[in-house]
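Figure S4 source data
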Amino acid sequence: MGRKILIIEDDEETAGYLVRGLSQEGHTVERADNGQDGLFMASDGTFDLLIIDRMLPGLDGLSVLKALRAAKIASPALILSALASVGDRIEGLESGSDDYLVKPFSFAELLARVNALLRRSEARVAADPVMIVGDLEIDLLARIVRRGGRKIDLKPREYSLLEYFVRNEGRVITRTMLLEKVWHYHFEPNTNVIDVHVSRLRRKLEDGFDRPLLHTVRGAGYMLSAAA
């Protein structure tokens, strides 16, 4: 099954090479061409893997990674770098990367490392596959949602929407974020698709329960929270 991968790479040729290759393997691939944008995109915590160039404009790759780890973003990360000394590799690993690949590299080797990191990540999910917000539980492996012990049947898009909210519990999520991260639109279509899906999801989550979970933040977006 394809996974969601973010590539933070400023070199157009290298980035294109990676995007094409990983997309052909069935993955959903997004790309940032500088450290600041990469940090912003990775901060939502929804990517299954980060591939980060070490030398980036504005904010270097190791600084991006340190900021993500400080923010408790645990997405596995592979550093790409032309810096090949043992000290450089150690610095990369100590900054929070899970692997370090020296440029130039073959796509076959990169793919092998990507697959190894994804397998390790899946094993961690298998060890602790349930996310909980209040009395809401999501089994990430079985894709089963329960509230108060009662199973809630969701359509695939509703499940993806809920998983994104749960992974960002307590944060304000804008319509643009939902369009980009759940629908994978990088523009805002003239449609009320977000409002319709959020309304359906809210109804399924809250019908029969006293305490709301999915809140509208006026003028900003939405927030999932079990707090009053």
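Figure S5 source data
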Amino acid sequence: MSHSHFNDVFLARRTILLRTLQRMVRNSSTAEDLLQETYLRVARALRERAIEHLEPFVFQTARNLALDHLRARRLHARTVVEDLPLADLHSIVAPNAALEDTEHASRLLQSLTASLEKLTPRQQKIFTLSRLNGCSYPEIAEELGVSASTVQKELKLIMAICVGVAARLERR
């Protein structure tokens, strides 16, 4: 399939692709960026292999990019800003939180912090990369020079510690 045929298909479907992306991400500027990335990704894929059903491939690529963007945005929204001092983090209280909920959350955070500080530096790095940065097991394994299986086992142990801390606090 020629690159000019791809250009024809892309230009013919550009408007509907853009509207689809805008509906998904609810931001015109981001949708434009994703549309541009779609073009680049499909063009790269065409250089590597033949694509039999080009139009559905273009739409699926755009959809996947939008979903990746939304996932990253949700993860970022849940992630604590790393530059925030721990003392400031402890003083954050949810609006309208009941006093006992606030105290419980504070005790839980203190217990978790104490438990996580007892982890080895590698375990702390695995926890941070996985739970705060959203990295996958293979990404963490590559960064730390260990196997993905090791990352998985370490993270399972770390999460068991976190669950144990929460369970002990619930029994109090």
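Residues 3-78 form a domain with the Rna Polymerase Sigma Factor; Chain: A fold (CATH 1.10.1740.10). Residues 112 and 144 are 23 Å apart (CA to CA).
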